[in-house]
């Protein structure tokens, strides 16, 4: 059965939803604020996320944006006590798959989860997420190979990447043309955002820039105050 991440600061509702989904066979981890939710997401492997919108430390919209940096495809359902149209629109802008206004029935929540997971399964079955196209470059994540096909369809000698180079390039490729924060990249690839890991990451970014120069249309740029962006 799929694994679900529930982030809800209301202890009563959070426990109720967690117990209900567990009873229905879903492994459900629960966090009580946005910071704790992000930490669980980075440590786990989740098939669907359920985020409350109004939470301490980090609201659901901010949490969703950061989660999308690490996994652009994981389905997200927002829970909110508000019914304003503006909140619904903002939720979908940051990548919501569904939106439920409190109070709601557990049965309806379950049906929506099942429907989203069915759609998600169909979309992932038809694509290979382990191969990333970056301009004329092809990144084979499982084999850690970066290759390029020329205009004459001649495949050049592929570049073998290290594990850290592969993990970092995968994160950037998943967020193509979108900024990835330094702190998030460090936590996802190195485990924490210490000073020494930050210096190490700068070295790996320089190496990736060298490899990506094979295609002049591809750039790995610094985004002031944010981090990096892989642009095609």
From TrEMBL:
Upper classification of the organism: Bacteria, Pseudomonadati, Bacteroidota, Cytophagia, Cytophagales
Domain Response regulatory: 3-117
GO-annotated biological processes: regulation of DNA-templated transcription
DNA-binding region boundaries: 129-232
Family annotation (Gene3D superfamilies): 3.40.50.2300, 6.10.250.690, Winged helix-like DNA-binding domain superfamily/Winged helix DNA-binding domain
Modified residues (4-aspartylphosphate): 52
GO CC, alphabetical: cytosol; protein-DNA complex
Protein name: Response regulator
């Amino acid at each position: 059965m799929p694994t679900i991440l529930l982030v809800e600061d209301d202890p009563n509702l959070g426990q109720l939803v967690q117990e209900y989904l567990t009873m229905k066979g879903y492994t459900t981890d629960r966090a009580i604020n946005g910071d704790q939710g992000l930490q669980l997401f980075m440590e786990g492997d989740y098939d669907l996320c359920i985020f409350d919108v109004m939470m301490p430390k980090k609201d659901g919209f901010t949490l969703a944006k950061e989660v999308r940096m690490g996994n652009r495809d994981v389905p997200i359902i927002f829970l909110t006590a508000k019914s304003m149209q503006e909140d619904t629109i903002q939720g979908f802008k940051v990548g919501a798959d569904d939106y439920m206004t409190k109070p709601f029935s557990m049965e309806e929540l379950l049906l929506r989860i099942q429907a989203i997971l069915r759609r998600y399964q169909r979309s992932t079955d038809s694509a290979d997420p382990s191969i990333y196209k970056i301009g004329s470059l092809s990144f084979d994540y499982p084999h850690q190979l970066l290759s390029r096909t020329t205009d004459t369809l001649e495949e050049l000698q592929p570049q073998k990447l290290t594990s850290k180079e592969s993990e970092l390039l995968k994160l950037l490729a998943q967020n193509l043309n979108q900024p990835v924060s330094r702190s998030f990249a460090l936590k996802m690839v190195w485990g924490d955002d210490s000073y020494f890991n930050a210096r190490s990451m700068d070295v790996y970014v320089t190496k990736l820039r060298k490899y990506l120069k094979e295609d002049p249309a591809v750039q790995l740029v610094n985004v002031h105050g944010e981090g990096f962006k892989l642009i095609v």
